[in-house]
Amino acid sequence: RRGSLCDRRCSTINNDLGELGCHPHRPRGPTAGAPPHSEECESCARTTLTAENAVEANKLSNNYKFGFKKWKSHVTARPWEDRSEIVKELYSDLTALRGPAGSTVTCGNVLYLLLFGWWLSLLHGLVAVVMFLTVVGAPHGRLCWDLAGYFLWPFGKVIQKVEVPKSQEAGVGESSALLGGPTPRRWRPWCWEGTGYWRRVGTTAWLCLGYPVLALSHGLVCVTSWLLIVTIPVAKLSARSAARVLLLPPERVLVRRIRMTEVPLEGEVILCCYRAANPYYYKYSVHGLNVFAINLLPLVLVTLLLGYLDSHNHLSSSTLKFSLALLSIMPLSYYIGMAIASISAQSTFAVGAVVNATFGSVTELTFYISALLKGSREGSACYAEVVKSALTGTLVGCVLFIPGLCMVIGGIRHQEQRFNSRSAGVSSALLFLSVGGVFAPTLFSKVYGKLVCGECHNVTQNPLGHYLCHNCHFDLMDNNGTLYYSHVQPLVYTVSLLLPAAYLVGLCFTLKTHSHIYDIHVSGCHMPGHHHSAVVHWSRWRALVILLLSTLCMSACADLATEHISPILTNSTISQYFIGVTVLAMVPELPEIVNGIQFALQNNLSLSIEIGNCIAVQVCMLQIPILVLFTIFYPTNFTLVFSDLHVYASMFSVVLMNYTFMDGKCDYFQGTVLVMVYFILLAVYFFAPSPSGC
Questions:
Q1: Residue 54's pLDDT band (boundaries 50, 70, 90)?
Q2: N or C terminus of the chain: which is more exposed, having fewer CB within 10 Å?
Q3: Considering 224, 252, 280, which residue would you say is the last residue of a domain?
Q4: Domain final position from 280, 306, 325
């Protein structure tokens, strides 16, 4: 009755927003001006979302759909007027003159002086001396001398492009319409000031002796400061200096200090910088891509070149290649997530569901399959055990660590956070079902398998006394494998069919028949006269191409990681369980962890919890059945029989998570408990002996 009443009360919002061109996912809550509802419909207005346009509305709605990838970043360009002043300052051009803004002696400016300023100034001074010695390059020498003082401390100074009298311009041989006409603008560099300047002897000396050295130095400063992120203003300063200032005629460049009392400057301002660093540049993005993902992209190229060109480890060790391959997975996971979110937001529900189901787990599956293939080629069971550890580590980390960390960080800003306990209950029920199905063959083998021990010692020196045994395990291959092939293997195949079917039932339940449990109300989107039209960062085809290329690179990096993991598994004193549960399981999930933290900081803990739950459900209901299906066509050492440690850790994690999410509210204390339990389990894996076969 409550659901029917809530649907009737909220149907008006559906019609109103549908007329505006926005199609929210089951909006909940009363309409404006409506009388207060009864207590029965108090839960209708739970989550209210605001979107700038229809594409963003689809993305926000997809975030609350079960089985869809949760994505925090925008897939469309935000209107400039909707951005905060802090973000506007990040994208401001270095040509704006400001009023009094305090002292220019800041920590960031002093850091610039120590890292770049002193040697850039010295280099410009040396080039100035060289250009004076050439005589014909004396004008450029004076320019370099002025720039030496500017780059030592550019803050509070301005570089202008001054106008030269027309009589002087004619004297330097500028072309005119009678002499063939001016060069078309689209073929000119930014600094093109007429053909006369480029025909000077001094310009030739400058381009041969001075400019290459300074352009190279500014390029080095630009790359270094861009990689440091907080010093991106220095990167902009150096890029404009090399591409604009150094290519202008010397008589057109004026370097001067800004006085607070002087009138507005005449002439074009080319450079004007006040701060060398800004701590908010972690929010900076280019075409929708965060600056961290852009900076890590060259790492992928270095990893692939080093891994495939130096196959015999002449230039680097296997440990370094494994570390680089693992780190390269992080930006590729980000690109895959961005591409999936962009395609889903611009497509129909069916296309979005197919893309999420196909590529949602591609990051983990590429690594798991590569590891199983390598283990099959080498005839080693260690790789299968590492894959099982990684699967368990992903499950435990997504159930305990991701929600717990989000609760802690979100609880620092918000005293108490609430979330949709009913939707969390659906995910918990699916987790119980999936964990029970995944570990059913393991429990079956414990009951009917034969316990075999490597060696046993009589403790009491009595034939009827107690024995201490080591390396004990349940043998499923007794009597020519009758137990495994006749009982365990059919059970594995049955479970692998039932789990995806249960996943489809969960999709139907949460997306169709009972979609109202997510209580989503999208408002303020695509309203005529209020917002701009959607300008997507990536079109569907561009996102598809990036998705396929990222998947291909992901496969190559996973292949390199598994190729060079052997020395770590054999020579490391750390348990292989710990390596699989931590490094191999959680590194690919770092983009998801960042998304969850961002949602928690915005007091949207429901999505932070759903991120971990959806990944855990996909591990059990999609990834493991796919691995079982893969072993049918390509036999490997992978069997769906886990060690006792994996079983106990997974079941305890799911029970604790379900108990924590019962009341629909949490604080940083509950998050701390989840994180501490996760670290206790990591300590257990750290001190656990290596699995059999490793």
A1: confident
A2: N
A3: 280
A4: 280
